[in-house]
Each structure stands twice: as structure tokens, then as C-alpha cells.
Amino acid sequence: MSIKKNSYFKKEDTIYKITEEYSETLPVFLSNGFPQMEDDNKRKTLGNSISIKQALLLKGKSYDIFEELLISAIESNRLSEDSTLNKEKQQYDENSIFLLGALPCPVRIPLLEFVQKFSKTEYENTPYKLMHELKAASEGAAWMENRIKSIENPNELPDIFISAGFETFFSDKGIGKFKKDGVFKNRLPFKKFNTSFDNINLEDPKEHYSIISVVPAVFLVNTKELGDLPIPKTWEDLLKPCYENKISIPVGDFDLFASLLLNIHKKYGEEGVRKLSKSMLSAMHPSQMVKSEKNKNERPAVTIMPYFFTKMVKEGGTMQAVWPEDGAIISPIFMLTKANQEKSQSLINALASDDVAKILSHQGLFPSTNPNIENRLDIKNKFMWLGWEYIYENNIPELIEQCIDIFNEQ
Question: How far apart are CA 300 and CA 109, in angstroms?
């Protein structure tokens, strides 16, 4: 992830100063280990007594990556404010097309720019107007869930949802309650998926959900810390006793962590989740995982991370990326679209287009399902996927909670 030039705040600025000047950064703090910032009094007292640099040092978080998240939130908010899509200036009506979602940080800004450019060229001389709210995935999904919970009439729902992960889109308290009534339908312009996914079936047999891309989880091995242990090649390898207290797990990346737990539970049961918990040495941000060979305190032998971050590894070092032989566990990037809404079809086609696929696959290293795109993956690299039959047979949000409880038993 390239760090943008920061003209907004300094390392020495207090958390309170930053959140006061840029209120859009508050969700980033809340979703990344600073829950006390939700209380205005604590934010003013505690947040005014510590700099952002000191706070991240105490939390063991990477300043560079956290800075990138904050800048992304600030710039994305400015993009929204500067556009004609500003929700304060637009009122939703029958000619509105509303897009709501949470996007991975590496691709959020280019996708926002794409959506705004598309809006100007597609709807400028039409009665339609495009409205959107596309936040960073680092802000969590609570804001989207709260928005959905307050809606009873499906006509008030956004026309298109985009987000990674399972919890928001499968909860009966949220979107799930509308899905049962046939409110959503897969309206992707293609049925044949990219050949990268030939070993799995991503097409929803009930035609509710669309998948436009995936976030793969792979291994990053510190060969120096591994010592005489063999390099793990499969997920089953990581559950072996020899890897206990040697693995860093992306607990903070909830979507990927949930996918990890669900797949381990499906394949290895509750005991597999317990073994995964025993293997955990630390919960680190992917940026810290990449630099863990320099960390003097905790040096995991193996880290589980999004494929994107492995490209930050310097060649010739002790860190070696490993794509699991039994498949990289994936967190799908879902797109839900309302049925019988012809006014939104051109936007759906655009979000499934080659241009968006290139942003996802080439800039974000999130392999696209678009069949026209070269995902630049080795032909032997496969994926591990829960499968639609398993998804529909289980209450996914409840199963996630059960897996987390099992994981935390230790």
C-alpha cells in the first residue's frame, strides 16, 4: 500500500485535534482499537492528552498504515462533498439510484472516482440521479447494519449494496429479512466466471447474491523464525501442534477473520477452531506482519494475511509468501441488487465492467470474477470457498459468533 502525502495532520497532533478537525476519521479510530473515542468526554480528556504517534505505539499498531486509513477517510469524504452526489443536496425519489457499501482501502478511492465519473457521463442528460455512500471497510459494517435495521419497506432500501464479508448480508435482522421476500436478484451481465475460479462455484443457485471479487487469505512465512519446522503448505498444517503459539492471525480484519473461522469450522469442526486458537501468537495488522522480521518483541513464524499485503515483502529477505495448496480462503466481495429495477442496470453493468475489474484485480490484488480480466495468478493457485449449500444450510451470523466463542475459550 503506497502512503499518500499527508497535509492534514502531524504525528504530534492529538487524537482529539484530529477527530475535531476531521470528524470523518472517528469511525476509523472506533473500528481499530479506540472504542473510548465514542464517548465525547473521554475523547476530549484522553484524546487531548496523547498524540496519534504515542497512541499507536502503545497499541502496537503501524503508524504508516493507520495514517493511510485516516487520509483515505478524509479524502473520500472530500470527494463526496465536492460531488453532485452530496446526500444533503439530493433527496431520494423515484428517479434516484442509490449505491451503498464498504470498500477495501486499497481500491476505495479509485472506485469512488470511477463512480463519480460514470455518474457525470451516464446520467447528465437524463432524469436519473446517482446517490452513493461508499465507506472504507476499515470503518466496520455497523453503520450499514444500523441503516438497514431501521428500514421496514423494501422500497426504501438502496438499489445496490457492495461489501465484503458475510455478517451484514446474511443477518435476518438486516438484509436477510428482505432476501427471503425475493427483493434481490443477481443481475450481473455475465454468467460465466473468470477461469481463476474454475475449482469452485461462486454462482448463487437461488440468484440472490452476486460476487464481483474476492479477498484471498494466504501465508507469510518468516523462514528465520520457522527454524527447523517445515514450511506449512495447507491449512491443515497450521493446526498441527508444532505451530502452537507461532502464528499471527488477522483478528482485526473481521471479514477475513470470520471467513477464516467459518472455513476451518466447516472442514475441521470445532476442534479445528480450537487448534487454530492454540496456534495464535499474536493478532497483528498485515502491515506489521510484513515487517515482523524487524519486530524485537513478537516474531510469528507464520502470518495469515490478505494476498494484497504479500506484495509489500522485499525480495531476498527472510519472509516468504505461500499460497495454500488446498486453496486460499476467500472473503467474497458481494453485490446485492434489487430485482426489477431497470433504472440501475447500467450502473450494475459498470460495477461489473472490465474497468472496475482491473481496479479490483490489478490495483487491489483482489481477483475479479469478470471473465475478461487476467487476474495474474499462477494457474496452480486455487481458492477455498464455503459453498452456497453450506451457506444456505446454516445461520451464518450465529455460526460466526459460535466460532468466535470457541476461538476465545483458551
Answer: 32
